[in-house]
Amino acid sequence: MKLHTLFSLCCLGLFGTVFPVAATSFFDSASVDLAATARYYVHEKDRNKTVNNQFSHGVKGEFKFNKSSRGVKFNTHLFANWDSADEPRRYYDFREANVYVSQDNLKFGLGVDTFFWGVSESINIANVLNQADIMESIDGKVKLGQTFVSLSNRVKNGYISVYYLPVFREQAYPERPVYGLPVSEYALFEKDKKNGGIAARGLFYIDEFEFALSFFKGTRRSPLLLQSVANLSVRSPYYLQTENFIFDGVYLLDDFTVKLELKTGKELEHGFTASNLGLEYPSYAFSEYIEEVIFIAEYVFDDRGEQGESHGQNDIFLGTKFDFGHSNQGSVRFLYSYDFDFKSEYAELSYEYRLSDYFRFKSKFTKVLSAPMEDKRLFALSDEEFFKLSIHYAF
Questions:
Q1: How far apart are CA 88 and CA 9, in angstroms?
Q2: Which site from 36, 37, 61, 122 is most exposed, i.e. has the minimal number of CB atoms within 10 Å?
Q3: How far is CA 121 from each of CA 107, 127, 277, 338, rounded to the nearest angstrom?
Q4: Containing domain of residue 54, as a range?
């Protein structure tokens, strides 16, 4: 093991051991998750022969603390990562650093937070406030912290909230996987606007039906990657201004669950519609070995085509997830997608196992099974299949 890797591990271990012990005397709760990580790409170089980071190792840590007193709650969630080969993956981020003040039915919030909107398993088209942390997860599920001011009002069957987002964060790109061509550090913005945006959301619960109505206006988090005129060997991120009206909801039936995310709005002076309609069906056919297996089917439509925020434009997603072992020690999640326009195929398999109360193992394999050149998003990720492994110590 190289000296700088050993030093990084020791520093994270020392901080993760000493600081929580000291913090618990002040905070109501404190938790630490330290991990040794490894990433292996099946192909030595990317399709364009521009990057040669086939194997890397590293360390990462997450530190969470909170404190409540007389209607005031402080939250902190710090994430830090160090990678041996991929320099952009040497970074840290405050996922949370905020304070919430509650008085009767009102709640005022200020600081940095990670918000989650949506109900789908594959692509959350409703989750628009935070920038995706694709250095940590290319599926966009992991988010960077977002600076905010909010005011929420509790109503009879839910909450109504408004948000002001003063700062916009650009998307950071790792060296691998390569998105067709290296991505320029210099981004372009529609009408030179770079604003976090404003938003509102009403979340309601009615019997077996949970749904939300939301609005967002500001700089779109996911950019278009345009070939640079000045340098044809790189792509330039181009951030659009967007206006979204969003619905997301879950309806629980006796035998299965119906999920829907629907978004309509305006970009580039044109209206658009995107949706994700899904079903979840629990099966107990394997109850002798696995308590419950959940089968997932979702269909994603986006009439923006290549200008959409993800590769889901006319795609079906099929998958399953289940826990197994004593006290659900392990979990497996599999997802497969098929594009009806381009016949592209994509798959990912995740596995997690809890070794003890303190240690757990996580792994994930991601692969583009097939993609023609016309499918620019997935074709750019062809030959970029990789394994990701980590061993976690949490307390």
A1: 19
A2: 36
A3: 29, 12, 10, 15
A4: 3-279
